[in-house]
Write a structure and sequence with these properties.
Number of helices: 7
Helix content: 40-55%
Bound molecules: zinc ion
Order of helices and strands: HHHEEEHEHEHEHE
Strand order of the largest sheet: 4-3-5-6-7
Number of strands: 7
Structural class: alpha/beta
Radius of gyration: 20 Å
């Protein structure tokens, strides 16, 4: 597909094609859709991207998205600091929050172990997780990674890493979630049950 279109059009297609889940055909379709928009509409999208990149950063504690140093959850003193729910992405926090079953805090790994894509523990926020366990008086870590190959591999790795630490229980959300899926596709009732039915990792 490369180089079929001239300069800026091809640049746009290339950039869109780098987005997750967008193949070359979709990239081309979206690019031509954007070109057909009024300048005002197209620039609104560009501005929304620029503004989000300017104003939103990572929470320095849990790596959720945040407009300040700490995200709303880390800054909330009513959250139970002894419970730490480990998720892959900030959007997973939204899924868990929707269940209304969880009052602890979170830690966002910003990905999952994926050898094919070259993602190992060093590319994730694992070191930061270990520091938090020492500093924050956590007594239970709930591994809430996705029920797919990468999420299970990540939970297995973290389970082995964290289990030997004194004074910390490591648990994994119960099965019963759609296998191979992402947490964001689970309804809040199912995810709430999976949280409630979490099992201690052995
Ligand atoms: Zn936070």
């Amino acid at each position: 597909m490369a180089g079929v279109y001239a300069g800026p059009v091809q640049d746009l297609i290339d950039e869109l094609g780098r987005l997750p889940g967008i193949g070359p055909k979709s990239a081309q379709r979206i690019a031509f859709h954007l070109l057909k928009l009024s300048k005002e509409d197209a620039l609104r999208l560009a501005r929304a991207i620029a503004e989000a990149k300017d104003r939103v950063a990572w929470c320095t504690q849990c790596f959720n998205i945040s407009e300040g140093e700490l995200c709303g959850i880390c800054a909330d003193p009513r959250r139970d600091a002894t419970l730490l729910c480990v998720v892959e992405e900030p959007r997973d926090i939204v899924s868990v929050e929707r269940t209304g079953e969880y009052r602890g805090r979170y830690h966002v790994l910003q990905g999952a172990i994926n050898p094919i894509e070259g993602v190992g523990p060093d590319q994730l926020r694992v070191k930061e997780l270990l520091v938090r366990l020492e500093d924050e008086g956590v007594s239970e870590v709930i591994l809430c990674t996705n029920p797919n190959i990468e999420g299970e591999a990540t939970a297995l790795y973290l389970g082995r890493l964290l289990k030997p630490i004194d004074g910390i229980t490591v648990s994994r959300i119960a099965s019963g979630l759609p296998v191979g899926g992402d947490l964001e596709y689970a309804d809040e009732l199912t995810l709430g049950r999976a949280l409630e039915g979490r099992r201690v990792v052995d």
